[in-house]
Amino acid sequence: QVQLVESGGGLVQAGGSLRLSCAASGRTISSYTMGWFRQAPGKERAFVAANSWGIGTTSYIDSVKGRFTISRDNAKNTVYLQMNSLKPEDTAVYYCAATTDFRASRLQYEYNYWGQGTQVTVSS
Questions:
Q1: CA-based nearest residue to 6, from 124, 93, 76
Q2: DSSP 59-82
Q3: Pairing of strands 46-51, 113-114
Q4: Is 85 left (phi over 0), alpha (psi -120 to 50) or beta?
Q5: pLDDT tens digits, 80-100
Q6: What are the contacts of 47-56 at 24+ separation with CB within 8 A?
Q7: Percentage of the chain surpassing pLDDT 70?
Q8: Maximum CA pair distance of the chain?
Q9: What is the pLDDT of residue 102?
Q10: Number of separate helices (H) and strands (E) present in the chain
Q11: Both ends of the chain: CA-CA distance in Å?
């Protein structure tokens, strides 16, 4: 079992930055692909970014490429999502997730473990 706890969300103005953290416990994340998903108001939860274990392949949705960066610190058992140049449309609850799949999967059903989410609100 892997327990995931997100932090770092908050209210920020458009153009600002936030760094989300996802602290894992129970198992080391070095053997897990880690992903970030988000759910905007009135919308379904959707993929944002993933970082695979092993060779560390990353994957992003097009709308965050060049603005968001996913990274991990296996020694701290933590994965991060650095979000720069934030836009109002980035407003959502952000969830961290983990899967033993070796690919940087974009598919929610492939993720076995989920955090409780952290709210990110970007004002215009």
A1: 93
A2: EE-GGGTTTEEEEEETTTTEEEEE
A3: unpaired
A4: left
A5: 999 999 999 999 999 999 999
A6: 47/106, 47/107, 47/108, 48/81, 48/94, 49/81, 50/104, 50/105, 50/106, 51/79, 51/104, 52/101, 52/102, 52/103, 52/104, 53/29, 53/102, 54/102
A7: 100
A8: 40
A9: 87
A10: 0, 11
A11: 40
Q: Tell whether the model's pLDDT for residue 56 goes beyond 90.
A: no
List pLDDT tens digits, range 3-49: 999 999 999 999 999 999 999 999 999 999 999 999 999 999 999 99
| Per-residue pLDDT at 4 | 98
Distance between CA 101 and CA 96 in Å, rounded? 15
In the beta sheet, which residues pair with residue 37?
47, 95
- Report the pLDDT averaged over residues 62-86: 97
What span, in angstroms and rounded, lies between the C-alpha atoms of 64 and 31? 25
